[in-house]
Amino acid sequence: xxxxxxxxxxxxxxxxxxxxxxxxxxxxxxxxxxxxxxxxxxxxxxxxxxxxxxxxxxxxxxxxxxxxxxxxxxxxxxxxxxxxxxxxxxxxxxxxxxxxxxxxxxxxxxxxxxxxxxxxxxxxxxxxxxxxxxxxxxxxxxxxxxxxxxxxxxxxxxxxxxxxxxxxxxxxxxxxxxxxxxxxxxxxxxxxxxxxxxxxxxxxxxxxxxxxxxxxxxxxxxxxxxxxxxxxxxxxxxxxxxxxxxxxxxxxxxxxxxxxxxxxxxxxxxxxxxxxxxxxxxxxxxxxxxxxxxxxxxxxxxxxxxxxxxxxxxxxxxxxxxxxxxxxxxxxxxxxxxxxxxxxxxxxxxxxxxxxxxxxxxxxxxxxxxxxxxxxxxxxxxxxxxxxxxxxxxxxxxxxxxxxxxxxxxxxxxxxxxxxxxxxxx
Length: 426
What we know:
alpha/beta, Aspartate Aminotransferase, domain 1, Aspartate Aminotransferase, domain 2, 4-stranded mixed sheet, 15% strand
């Protein structure tokens, strides 16, 4: 295959909306676990993992085999929401190994194939069941790019892309978002004041860890008190676990062990196991009041994704081994990042589990660090209001030696770019 004109064809034909390829201007031809290979045969360590869509790495062999077997046996590819053997097997495994083992009782709604579809369904259902319109979302939150989810997203640049007023959502400070402000006390005071201008909300929509917003991690106490506040005012809790869930912080759900029972849980990204498009909304059973086809989508039944998701659940979640391995890697990541952050004046550690990064205080510096990493064979990106956080989202399955090598590349880039940034500042 001639890849010499690849850049030309993308520049000529692909929309200006493209983004990641601008930071990583090569053509990738193969991928396995935590390694990406370009058309020149160069390998890169993947610390992006499809923005947490590849928690189990690229092309897991067991998932590959199951998918190939399904395809070659003429297994159903597209079935709308009809019953299929692939869906049955996935739901059986999800019920047994994820829900029942955690004492959780939720209906599973398959939405359109991306996270924003699951968030849209959650917002609609919250409004339908409560009879209220207002959704309370939080500063720095990211929930999707369709118009309802976009209204709940904080990023000004992304909001501007909507081209019209975004309504129905009120934004409140996330925990620690504003120095000296007790976010929960502020929300409580506004809800209790009939002249505050804040209508009684249908739901609070929150990410336990804000992936795109800068790896801000809400404490268990904050989330528990938010749930109590919601219950006191007849509102629901929508726990957006799209990026933070499916093992990214250690347990399958990022809020496990916090004593919280969300009403609605949007899921996507790594839910399919292999990066195939798949999203779902977990619904408290008494809230499942949809009429048939009241919320639907042509691609809500991705049978290929059902196949790989079932394998992922049975392979990685039949016991606690995988979770313990992830938690051990996360502890090592914390140790390494603390040492790296100490080399940049004012830098701080952000996030939780295998969803951590370094706030270097400057979007320019963070971009320079990521660019230097790429030059040295590491794929890594930024997040935060000013893109000031260098974010590590390595596959959870990354071999420890490769993980350390990637962190070595990151440390060298921080040292070099931090020194240059300091000299330029002086």
